[in-house]
Amino acid sequence: MGKKLSAKSPATKPVVKQEMKQKPARQQATQASKKEGTMERVGIVGYCQIKPSLDLQMDRYEAAFKAVRGALDSANLKRKDLTSVISATNDYYDGRTISNCFTVEPSGSYLKDESKVEMDGAYAVLYGMMRVLSGNHKLVAVWGGSMASGFPYEVTTLLTTDPTFDRTKELLNIMTAGGFQMRAYMEKFGISAEDIANIAVKNRKNAANNEFALPESQDADITVEKVLESGVLSSPVTELMYSRPCDGMACVLLAPEKQALKITNSPVWITGVGYSQEQYYLGERDLSKSLSMENAAKMAFKTAGITNPKKEIDVAELFEHFAHEELILSNAIGISEPGSQSEIPVNPSGGAMSGNVLCATGLVRIIECAKQIKNEAKDHQISGAKRALASGQIGFCAQNNILYVLEGGEK
Amino acid sequence: MAGRQVAIGGAGFSAHASKRSDVNMPELVHEAVEDCLKNANCDINSIDSIVFGNMPSFEGVNYPELWMTDEIGARNKPLLRVTTGGTTGGSIGIAGYYNVTAGLPGIDTVLVIGFEQQSCGDTSIGLASVAYAEVSAYTKFGWSMEKNSKFFGAGAAIGIASYQAINYIKRSGATEEDLARVVVQNRHNAAKTWWTHLKMPDLTIEEILDTPYISYPLRYGMVTPASDGACAMLFTTEEKAKDFTDVPVYVNGVSSVSNENAAMGYAGSGTGQLDPCEQIGAVESAKLAYSQAGISFPEKEIDYIEVYSPFPNQELQWLERLGLFEENTAHLRYRDGTTAPNGELPVNCSGGVNSTNAIGASGLERIAESALQIMGKASNQVPRTVHTAIGHSWGGTINLVTLMVMSDQQKRKWKGGE
Lengths: 411, 418
Known about the structure:
The complex is a heterodimer of chains A (411) and B (418).
Chain A: H1 2-8, H2 14-21, H3 24-31, E1 42-53, H4 60-74, E2 84-88, H5 91-94, E3 113-116, H6 121-133, E4 140-146, H7 153-158, H8 174-189, H9 193-208, H10 224-229, E5 232-234, E6 237-238, E7 247-256, H11 257-263, E8 268-277, H12 291-304, H13 309-312, E9 315-317, H14 323-333, H15 361-373, E10 387-394, E11 400-407
Parallel strand pairs in A: 2-3, 2-4, 9-10
Antiparallel strand pairs in A: 1-7, 1-8, 4-7, 5-6, 8-11, 10-11
Chain B: E1 6-13, H1 25-39, E2 49-53, H2 64-67, E3 79-81, H3 88-101, E4 110-117, H4 123-128, H5 132-140, H6 145-155, H7 157-172, H8 176-191, H9 205-209, E5 213-215, E6 218-219, E7 228-237, H10 238-244, E8 249-258, H11 280-293, H12 298-301, E9 304-306, H13 312-321, H14 330-335, H15 352-355, H16 359-375, E10 388-395, E11 400-407
Helix pairs in contact in B: 3-16, 7-13, 8-13
């Protein structure tokens, strides 16, 4: 089943993966004790996604409860086993300040060491990971999400801008920034809107195979023409090239190596992480590339001991706010040549396009990688996926990026 | 698996005032960053990563750290944003600790930045948004808008504080004079610290008791100001700390325990029936942080305390819950001068949150001032040598309490975790 569907994915090159299989030596080396310059691995021992929806029929507390409870259930654990809970929510998205104080009980953080990362969920995983690596915590729940049906996302992005010079003119917002970025990329590498539309087609087709995709994003029969002819959001970005925000929640459980092996026989290991921020003013940035992702990838590959990502990575799940960002980010990570698509499968789940749950999109990318590695991705499984990349971002034109390296491994 | 020993290399502040209209937000934050780097004898190139936080809705900028990238030196550096409301300062301090102790390759020295420019927004409106989601529900149930606006007034910080104060007074037998005494000590201390907001060297108890009530038993003269200001701190490894300071301060225990969301009891969460000055979260937080730091007798082993107390009754309450004074006796310790800078257990020699409150920075300022007392570099330095100190903060709907235990000695023993 997996083979058939992976062949459907336009970015799949089975040849690369066969090469991977012939290299068990390298994998064993990673699982050996911590090497100089790398980090101790952290285990993902459970996860849960609430299926995204344009209007989820539950409130945020119920969704948070279901996500955290679902993750604990998936690992056969109880609330008392948790030592820390990290949330990823945004006060502007939730429409109330200190939004985490209302989720204490539903998210299981009552009398637990609790904190909140107000960024994408992937950064909350970073903080959870740091707490695990500190030795203070044995089981950390990281959850995040938002209810896009309850707030005007495009307006809240306006609040991210410089209030004196940018916000007053209202010319710069998430859409126009995306338009600038796509134009810059197309002109730099001489590619057409069709090439970008192809990415949207691929992701929306992939989403059709993903049971946890936003139903509105699933389209097995989508064509390039349909993408290009959907309404213009900000020229040249069209509606179907945009990862539309929606409602949802997600949760992962993190544990230190020893503890993770007690909980499950097959944890997914976080073996590398990198994150970086670049400057704010778009005019100071080369929008055709992503400097912050280049830095993040450098750090992530260094921590994971990866030298040739094109050969060593089997699958990548990237947070692309717009279709063209998938190309820019894969270029920056180094899994594709500048101006072209990646040779390894990117976003078999459909990526952020399959459901952009703000504050959880990066977290879901990590969960999707974990599924691929554990062979649990069902209809969108890439066969033989052993090592995966997951990314998260915030800001206009992906100003701050984070990249994870995840690996499987025997007991 | 055990984390690395973490040390504090330095701290810096911007000047605090009611309205810092001479600077915009990035410039205000930049002042603190510059001051911190200067005090730690280094430049931005020594910084490997940044932790940033503020109270999000007060200035109306979402993700302000993106906009002020260059002013905080975050260009091409890893950055993590942590916010937990009033505890944000404490939470980013703890996040700074975790950034260092985790030992990610290439991340040794972390700059932690918290700020608030409350003059750019309206704090009460910001705090009212804690309750906004309930507005529609209440109006549906037939509440008038007039009732709603009163509800907001009570639901903001002063409302919760007055519930606490009444409960505390009932429990302990403290009087209004006792509350005023706490304020006088704080404002006198603030006058001796360079960066603070309400400097009142000649304030008397009578003057405070002469001001009108805002919400019984809290008077105008007792409440925290709304300040503009920023604070920055440098957390680093044991080895590198010596490059930044002669007396490194070691972080030996951190905790941020959340109690139930008692004030609202919203959506079936929490009982809404708690005594707001009982504070199980603070008791648990103290237990956790002290056990990490190997402290068994906090009242004897801790030499200096910075507690987060916008209102004077809270200062008394926290000192008891954190195990520093016997239950219901804290106000007596203020009467006999134990908590004065030259007393046995000095409290809030920076003037505390009662004198200066730039919310996103306040919790971090508690940690910073405690660290400076250990280093011997505080503006209002206590005469006795400080070996062990704590920095505390609280927030949310009085439900989250953060605590950091600092010492001039490395961690003696380590409980919990692997």
